[in-house]
Design goal:
The complex is a heterodimer of chains A (about 450) and B (about 180). Chain A starts with 5 loop residues before the first helix and ends in a 25-residue tail after the last strand. Chain A has a 15-stranded parallel β-sheet that branches. In chain A, strands 8-10-12 form a three-stranded parallel β-sheet. Chain A contains twelve helices and 18 strands. Chain A has about 450 residues and is α/β, with parallel strands linked by helices. Chain B has about 180 residues and is mainly α. Chain B contains eight helices and three strands; from the N terminus they run ββααβαααααα. Chain B has a three-stranded mixed β-sheet. In chain B, a hairpin with a 4-residue loop joins β1 and β2. In chain B, α3 packs across α5. Chain B is globular. The chains are: A alpha/beta (about 450), B mainly alpha (about 180). The interface between A and B is large, with 48 and 47 residues.
């Protein structure tokens, strides 16, 4: 470095020393600690005086039962649940009143712990003003034997807080009868899985949360005639209730709905009232028998009420419509559809179905083909099978996931290439879990994702 | 040492901040704390809020060399590597999977001290996704380590008095007992 004086060199050196790790700013340390479950964050309090309280400044709390160390030999008379509850109690006492963004709790509820859980939630909501309350009382099957106790979540615990996002898994729910007076304006997004909900409770819930924009109900099996009526709701996801034979109807009346998703959703009847703003529509099934085809068909027909969709994610059973007594009206098209994601096989049936669907959406630009090896064969007319004509004038890009290079796939790729379509092939990775299990997935995004 | 132009940079047709119409790929020039000069592709440089603000806020011409006094050249190389890859993968269908694979490779050979340096740089350059990634990596690393290790890593002195230390221990006794030491 020509031209630099010795004092400049010294200055540079001093600058570097100042930047040594000793001076890692608190905001970075807090950011690192925010990735710890709280039990691990507390262990850092012995590092130094400054670190003693750092853990308590992290604006989130994360109590994970499944990650919690076992009581072990040091506490032979204590059960796992006692140990964990004690830990949560102490931590909440130690923690100063500074507000948190997220309170996450996973716990296996046992008889006698109502007061504990109530006080934890009250603390999170009222004292610490959590914006996100994520409560998982299921975790996974292995924690649940023949006897299970269930916690009852009292919705009025939320009254004096500002919770925006609520996730509850595996509990009862108690709602006041005059929920409309609750007026919980902060609530934007609700996710209920395995929650004991009745039809009336859903109505009450919506009337008590006037700003609710996102609602996801999974495995809520007591619903019979579900009605979702709200001018605020933009994103709705229902599902994982197949096997419960009792649902008679689902009616959706949400004029501002933008995104609608059905995953393994079962009902005798589906009604979708006009949804002019609907942009994304998704229908997914992970089991394949004739029964599910009927369900699929009922749900897919709802597209007639939402012909402006731009993004469609669907199982490719479309060939059925070619022989169905009740197909789409002759002039029906999805003109705004520009993104299509198909879960499809690569048999003749799959291709015929693909072509039929593409005929409905002349403006599709992007297509993603995801593999499913379970297609239900039926007797299609021989001539229908032989002539597969693809008509996709605007198609620009196709991604084929789980590409295995079968002859049919290769032929398809050839047809597409001839049309000037850009192809992306994603080969099969046998380490992947190729199924789409409806497991409990606990993510902590600012917006709830609707999981496949 | 300037970064070689590997792929084609995007060719912009609209005018640049200096008001003239440019149809050449735009580059931003920075100088690190140890005196090295780097040429960054505009799309990569704009991933760093600090750089973005510097040029955008006062409409500074791209001809100005921006000083990054708190960043060493080796650190900038790593940052550019990560951000370029992120920008490349951003719009792909398999984004998460491919990013994860890249992330695993990226941290494989890095020492914890390196990670700490990079967290500082990520914070200074204000690259949120890179900061989250580095902090998560650091958290994963120290989660199972004992207090002495953490002290050494962060260059922190044990400034507790005996009594204070005992008090701190009683505040959360079970949390410090490293009950599953054998697991690690």
């Amino acid at each position: 470095m020509a031209g630099e004086t010795s004092s400049q060199v010294l200055l540079l050196h001093a600058k570097r020393l100042r930047r040594s790790l000793n001076d890692l700013p608190d905001e970075i340390l807090l950011h690192i600690l925010s990735f710890f479950p709280t039990v691990d964050a507390i262990t850092t309090s012995l590092t130094s005086r400054k670190w003693r309280l750092l853990w308590s400044l992290v604006p989130s709390l994360n109590f994970s039962y499944e990650l919690f160390p076992l009581a072990g030999d040091s506490y032979p008379d204590t059960t796992q649940v006692e140990f964990f509850a004690d830990f949560v109690n102490r931590t909440l006492i130690l923690r100063p009143d500074s507000h948190i963004h997220t309170f996450r709790l996973s716990f296996i509820f046992e008889d006698g712990y109502e007061l504990h859980v109530n006080s934890w939630i009250r603390c999170a909501v009222t004292r610490l003003k959590a914006r996100e309350l994520l409560i998982d009382l299921f975790i996974n099957e292995s924690y649940h034997g023949r006897h299970s106790w269930y916690y009852e979540f009292d919705f009025s615990l939320l009254r004096y807080g500002r919770v925006e996002v609520l996730r509850l898994t595996n509990c009862f729910l108690s709602l006041k009868t005059n929920m409309s007076t609750m007026n919980l304006c902060s609530m934007r997004s609700i996710y209920f899985e395995r929650v004991d909900l009745t039809d009336q409770m859903v109505r009450d819930l919506i009337s008590g949360c006037p700003n609710l924009e996102q609602l996801e109900l999974r495995s809520c099996v007591r619903l019979k005639n579900l009605v979702i009526s709200s001018s605020r709701i933009k994103k709705l996801a229902l599902g994982y209730d197949y096997g419960s034979e009792s649902k008679e109807s689902i009616e959706i009346e949400c004029p501002n709905l933008c995104s609608l998703s059905f995953s393994n959703c079962s009902s005798a009847q589906f009604v979708l009232n006009e949804a002019p703003a609907l942009v994304e529509f998704r229908v997914v099934f992970t089991r394949f028998t004739v029964k599910y085809f009927d369900l699929w068909s009922k749900i897919v027909r709802l597209l007639e009420q939402a012909p402006h969709v731009e993004k469609l994610i669907v199982q490719n059973w479309w060939y059925k419509f070619l022989i169905s007594k009740d197909p789409f009206p002759k002039d029906f098209t999805l003109n705004n559809l520009n993104y299509l994601e198909l879960r499809t096989g690569y048999t003749r049936y799959g291709l015929v179905g693909m072509a039929a669907l593409l005929a409905l959406c002349p403006n599709v630009q992007t297509m993603v083909l995801d593999y499913t090896d379970k297609t239900h064969k039926e007797n299609l007319l021989e001539e229908l099978l032989n002539e597969v004509m693809f008509n996709m004038p605007k198609l620009k890009k196709v991604t084929i996931i789980a590409y295995t290079g079968t002859q049919v796939q290769v032929n398809l790729v050839t047809i597409l290439k001839r049309q000037g379509v850009k192809i992306e092939l994603v080969p099969v990775n046998f380490d992947d879990n190729n199924s789409y299990p409806p497991g409990v997935e606990f993510t902590n995004p600012p917006q709830i994702e609707f999981l496949p | 040492m300037s970064t070689p132009a590997e792929n084609e940079a995007s060719i912009k047709q609209e005018s640049g901040p200096s008001g003239t119409v440019q149809d050449k790929p735009k580059k931003i020039v920075v100088r690190t704390g140890d005196g090295e000069v780097f040429e960054l592709k505009e799309e990569v440089a704009m991933e760093m809020e600090t750089i973005k603000t510097f040029f955008m806020e006062d409409n500074i011409s791209y001809e100005t060399v921006m000083p990054l006094t708190n960043v060493d050249s080796w650190e900038l190389v790593k940052v550019i590597e990560y951000c370029s890859k992120y920008v490349e993968l951003k719009n792909k269908e398999n984004f998460h999977k491919e990013l994860k694979a890249f992330q695993d490779e990226f941290v494989k050979s890095m020492s914890p001290k390196t990670l700490l340096s990079l967290s500082n740089v990520a914070n200074y350059l204000e690259i949120k996704y890179f900061l989250d990634f580095i902090c998560q990596a650091i958290a994963d690393h120290i989660k199972s380590k004992d207090v002495e290790y953490v002290r050494e890593l962060f260059g922190v002195e044990n400034d507790f008095t005996e009594e204070e230390y005992e008090m701190a221990k009683t505040e959360a006794p079970w949390a410090h007992e490293n009950l599953d030491k054998d697991l690690y």
